[in-house]
Specification:
about 120 residues, alpha+beta, Ribosomal Protein L30, Chain: A, three-stranded antiparallel beta sheet, two-stranded antiparallel sheet, about 35% helix, binds L-tyrosinamide, ClpS, Ribosomal_bL12_C/ClpS-like, ClpS_core
């Protein structure tokens, strides 16, 4: 498990050995280490089906996932051959938005294209 906050003690300069108490005292300072935590990530996947046109899937990948035509064509073919492919990895809110955008766009064009998300 990563991303914990640590509290650690730092010993500062010892007192003089001639000081009362035999010089065994030292100052202890508590410091909190600032720690940024990475958010959980989610894979967004496109699923194959027998009806959505290939050009439509390519368009979806260009429009919602910022791919070039060549990248989009390659990923579309991977989905077509393997059944699914990860098309991007995002934080929860962005992944949810991508899935909703793709599902809504497919529905409006009356294609059965399915887009899902899964924790990485
Ligand atoms: N299998 C579809 C066809 O042959 C193309 C397709 C590719 C559909 C990827 C969905 O996510 C998909 N027309």
């Amino acid at each position: 498990m990563t991303g914990q906050t640590f509290i650690f003690a730092t010993r500062l300069a010892s007192n003089s050995p001639d000081a009362p108490g035999g010089g065994s005292q030292s100052d202890v300072v508590l410091e909190t280490k600032p720690k940024t935590k990475r958010p959980p990530l989610y894979k967004v996947m496109l699923l194959n089906d027998d009806y959505t046109p290939m050009e439509f899937v390519v368009h979806v990948l260009e429009r919602f996932f910022g791919m070039t035509h060549a990248q989009a064509f390659e990923i579309m073919l991977t989905v077509h051959k393997k059944g699914l492919a990860v098309v991007g990895v995002f934080t929860h809110e962005i992944a949810e938005t991508k899935v909703a955008q793709v599902m809504d766009f497919a529905r409006r064009h009356q294609h059965p294209l399915q887009c899902t998300m899964e924790k990485e």
